[in-house]
Amino acid sequence: MSRLPILVRLAVRNLRRNVRRSLLTGAAMVVGVGLLAMSRAFAEGGHEDWIESGVRLGTGHIALQAPAFHARRTIEHRLDAEVLAGALGALDESSLADDALAVAVRLELRGLASSAAAAVPVMVNGVDADVERSFAELDTALEQGRYLEQGDRLHAYIGVKLAERLNLELGSRLVLTAQDASGGIAAQLVRVVGTFRTGLPEMDERFVQVPLETARAWVGTEGAATSVAVLLASSRRVPVVKRALV
To answer: Does the pTM exceed 0.85?
Structure first.
């Protein structure tokens, strides 16, 4: 004979003996499970926000680069105009277009920023200003002046700590020096159009943005880029997009 009916009757009888205790226990379980689910949802939401903040200041959820560029960060490991066009074409396919919130073409250069006061190693990013506004949102960290705009040519957007080290103000000139496409050293004179403050030392002391076309002309890489950064609607879509691109 099965013991299950007997156990059920005993359980029901025990619940009826102290209804108040049973209701309080049940309510505590419901509230506990609800709080656990709520805390899990908050944790997952906070984790996704943390990821998004990181990728917006970095290379996005996905970065398309030449195989050796990630390790060496040198201009010879770049995407030429033909390869860049192919990469952008792949991202424009209907199966991927809905996943990409923004696609930023960038020319990243390691170089030196110099003024009459000092010289500092920097990372120079040639960017499309309109795309970067929706991607990195570095324009929202504006301290003085303005962000880069379409039509800018010999302008630079720099961190406040870099401006302090080089003793620069809005409108001040500085010289950017980097390796060009032929392996030589090329210099570019620019003016400070705005400064930003992120609170991250590496950004505020070492980061410079200039117009993409200015960077290309400076180092002789017409139509090329070092990376294509892709911002997705969610980090959960990364595996799907990666599989589609491979």
So the answer is: no
